[in-house]
Amino acid sequence: MPILVMKFGGTSVATLDRIRRAAKRVGREVANGYDVIVIVSAMAGETNKLVGYVEETSPLFDAREYDAVVSSGEQVTAGLMALTLQEMDVPARSWQGWQVPLKTTDAHAAARIEEIPPANILAKFEQGMRVAVVAGFQGIAPDNRITTLGRGGSDTTAVAFAAAFGAERCDIYTDVDGVYTTDPRISENARKLDRIAFEEMLELASLGAKVLQTRSVELAMRYKVKLRVLSSFGEMGDDAGTLVCDEEDIVESNVVAGVAYSRDEAKMTLISVADRPGIAAAIFGPLAEAGVNVDMIVQNISEEGRTDMTFSCPTNQVARAEAAMKKAKEAGEINFHDLVADTGVAKVSVVGIGMRSHAGVAAKMFQALRDEGINIKVITTSEIKISVLIDRKYMELAVQALHDAFELEKVA
Ligand code: ADP
Ligand code: ASP
Ligand code: MG
């Protein structure tokens, strides 16, 4: 029988009633003749709660124990979903990541999927099981310890299963009815896209649009998985949603496809470091070793052989970054006067494949921010995106202003 992957996010399994509603959708696809692999997230808010426990217990936590704690939310929903399906007379059982086994690297808290051998689950399908409910977000490292795939990782579990099992489609059920030109919670003018190109979705996701985890889009692109985002609250049979597809399959598109934001950014500046060959390596080497995800980097003008080095990283990695820099200073690898952390910044980005062939996007972006009196602290660009770091208190205003400036509410 053809296989379908259906993933339900946290809000879609937030209560027993919602699990029942999701299970009904699954039951409908079983009746349509599919064997279904259901990937579930933890109940809404559950993972945040677990992360909070870990951080309160141990601020510079051991990531292996972090994974042991935060993976538990998905264990609960997988079991509850399987029970709900059984109550509906649908033959189903739950699978934890290690039972599949979903094999990952040992990069705890941000592990990458290495392999999903399909044999165990296929054998059960052959014996008449119709639904495999798999706990999303979790896997098992080579040393048999539990791993997690980074926040939002159930999307990646879903796409990886779709690729491993040659599924006909991977449907991501969430609390919005598709991918929008920007987060519909921030701009009421946001417009749902019927289709979005893989590359644009990849940029939007990596720049903060959490509707899909970045890695899930990468995998879908690489393995040509038919990936759809749709609402678990809409009418059953309303299959509208958004299809993430190849650029060639999109008829109309604006120069800018969407606006993304990331709230949890911190700007860190090392004041007065020696401006000498190798200084960047001496700073960013230890940061990488400490697991700090450095994003933007600016080296300021140098005076008398000293310079300031600014970089951004997620707010929750500030303590890690500070510890790594202090250690490098104590070891005599770098010397700086001070390390200043500004945790009140946000990143706002515009993304669009059309930027490859259209000039003037950056100018328009900067003018729109100027008109709102928003100061830009750091700028970075790539072929299809422009990002700026601004004060967090202007983040929503900036997103709305950019959405208006590029007229994203209209189809080109
Ligand atoms: P789930 O729990 O189902 O995985 P998430 O909260 O991870 O759901 O992702 C869905 C959320 O992503 C939406 O509620 C919305 O606020 C947010 N979002 C951000 N950017 C976008 C966008 N461009 N289109 C749609 N949703 C977006
Ligand atoms: N529950 C995990 C998280 O909140 C994984 C997911 O929902 O995708 O990050
Ligand atoms: Mg998510």
From TrEMBL:
GO terms assigned for molecular function: aspartate kinase activity; ATP binding
Catalytic activity, as annotated: L-aspartate + ATP = 4-phospho-L-aspartate + ADP
Keyword line: Amino-acid biosynthesis, ATP-binding, Kinase, Lysine biosynthesis, Nucleotide-binding, Transferase
EC code(s) of this entry: 2.7.2.4
Assigned GO CC terms: cytosol
Residues that bind substrate: T47, E74
A GO BP annotation: homoserine biosynthetic process
Pathway involvement of the protein, from the record: Amino-acid biosynthesis; L-threonine biosynthesis; L-threonine from L-aspartate: step 1/5; Amino-acid biosynthesis; L-lysine biosynthesis via DAP pathway; (S)-tetrahydrodipicolinate from L-aspartate: step 1/4; Amino-acid biosynthesis; L-methionine biosynthesis via de novo pathway; L-homoserine from L-aspartate: step 1/3
Pfam families, alphabetized: AA_kinase, ACT, ACT_9
Binding site for ATP: K7, F8, G9, G10, T174, D175, Y180, R185, K210, V211
SUPFAM superfamilies: ACT-like (SSF55021), Carbamate kinase-like (SSF53633)
InterPro entries, per the entry: AceGlu_kinase-like_sf, ACT-like_dom_sf, ACT_Aspartokinase, ACT_dom, AKii-LysC-BS, Asp/Glu/Uridylate_kinase, Asp_kin_monofn, Asp_kinase
ACT domain boundaries: 268-344, 350-412
Family membership noted in the UniProt record: Belongs to the aspartokinase family.
Protein name: Aspartokinase
Species of provenance: Psychromarinibacter sediminicola
